[in-house]
């Protein structure tokens, strides 16, 4: 009886759309680049709480915190490092170099950074 009621609830269009949206969010998330926004959107929570959950996942060994450096010209990620790694002082943006953009060599202080997380592969530990 309870399972029939539950099935009717799941079959309702509103619930189905909600579940379809959640499935799409998971499918579109790259496990090597999980952003706070992915977590915020999936759980429907604030950015602050999503960041807390990501940092908690790092503490628990589920995620690795990564820092990416974004090209000032094309906004693509030039390099990324583990939180504890020391980044080099200078980077080349290969995309801008290939496109023969005037400036493709940057000092790390000129670049915007972005925090993201990587799912830890527990099979290889």
Structure, described:
With 125 residues, this protein is of the alpha+beta class. The chain has 2 domains: 1-30; 31-120, no CATH class. It is built from 5 helices and 5 strands. It has helices at 2-11, 13-28, 36-43, 47-59, 94-98, and strands spanning 63-70, 77-82, 90-92, 105-107, 112-119. The strands form 2 sheets. Strands 2-1-5 form a 3-stranded antiparallel beta sheet. Strands 3-4 form a two-stranded antiparallel sheet. Helix 3 packs across helix 4. It is elongated.
Weakly predicted, low-confidence segments:
none
| Number of helical regions | 5
What is the share of helical residues?
A: 40-55%
Cα end-to-end separation: 45 Å
What is the total number of structural domains?
2
Structural class: alpha+beta
Beta strand count: 5
Helices and strands, in order, run as HHHHEEEHEE
How much of the sequence is in beta strands? Answer: 15-25%
* Rg, Å, rounded: 20 Å
Shape: elongated
Report the major sheet. Answer: 3 strands, antiparallel
- Average the pLDDT over all residues and give the rounded result: 83
Major sheet: order of its strands? 2-1-5
Give a short overview:
By secondary structure, the protein is an alpha+beta fold. The chain folds into two domains: 1-30; 31-120, no CATH class. It has helices spanning 2-11, 13-28, 36-43, 47-59, 94-98, and strands spanning 63-70, 77-82, 90-92, 105-107, 112-119.
SSE layout:
Elements: H1 2-11, H2 13-28, H3 36-43, H4 47-59, E1 63-70, E2 77-82, E3 90-92, H5 94-98, E4 105-107, E5 112-119
Antiparallel strand pairs: 1-2, 1-5, 3-4
């Amino acid at each position: 009886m309870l399972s029939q009621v539950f099935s009717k609830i799941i079959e309702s269009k509103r619930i189905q759309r909600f579940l379809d949206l959640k499935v799409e969010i998971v499918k579109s998330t790259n496990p090597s680049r999980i952003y706070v926004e992915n977590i915020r959107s999936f759980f429907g929570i604030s950015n602050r709480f999503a960041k807390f959950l990501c940092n908690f996942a790092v503490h628990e060994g589920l995620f690795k915190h990564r820092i990416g450096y974004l090209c000032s010209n094309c906004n693509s990620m030039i390099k990324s490092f583990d939180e504890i790694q020391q980044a080099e002082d200078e980077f080349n943006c290969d995309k801008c170099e290939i496109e023969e953009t005037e400036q493709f060599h940057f000092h790390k202080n000129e670049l915007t950074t972005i925090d993201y997380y990587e799912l830890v592969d527990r099979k290889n530990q």
